[in-house]
Amino acid sequence: MANTIKHQGVVEEINGSHLRVRIIQTSACASCSIKGHCSSADTKEKLIDVYDMRALSFQPGDRVWVAGELSMGMMAVLLAFVLPFLLLIISLFAFMALWNDELWSALGSLALLVPYYGILWMNKSRMKKKFSFVIQPMS
Burial, 133: exposed, middle or buried (Cβ in 10 Å; 0-12, 13-18, 19+)? Predict the structure, then answer.
């Protein structure tokens, strides 16, 4: 159970095997008893897409658990932040060695992020399969 992340949610809509579930994501201090006196308490509503063959057994308004593996979160952080940061830093040093001009080196490094995120965007259907959630009824 330590390898999964679970959130309570409410089924918003069902379309075949596709469910859209609304979850309320809270920060750790959102449940604190003095959150009204602190500016760091934070809650956000999010819609999560879940593809499950058991979708027809649920109805809109049902309370469910949405679960995902912890490794999905780590992979998402790696793809969205760590790899682009490394690409930016390595390309900056490479362009500085080639061009010896800070402005063009910085612009060239930033320009490399456009195709990187473009490749991620073009592979979003493949990533949807990798970053999938499962749904469980509330007990």
Answer: buried
Q: pTM, whole model, 2 decimals? A: 0.71
Closest CA to 49 of 131, 139, 138: 131
pLDDT attached to residue 3? 85
pLDDT in tens, 40-87: 556 788 899 888 888 888 999 999 999 989 899 899 999 999 999 999
Contact, 110 vs 88, CB < 8 A?
A: yes
Q: What order do you get walking across the sheet with 63-69 strand by strand?
A: 43-51, 18-26, 4-15, 63-69, 134-137
Q: Are 3 and 71 contacting, i.e. CB atoms less than 8 angstroms apart?
A: yes
Buried b (16+ CB within 10 A) or exposed e, 15-25: eeeebebebee
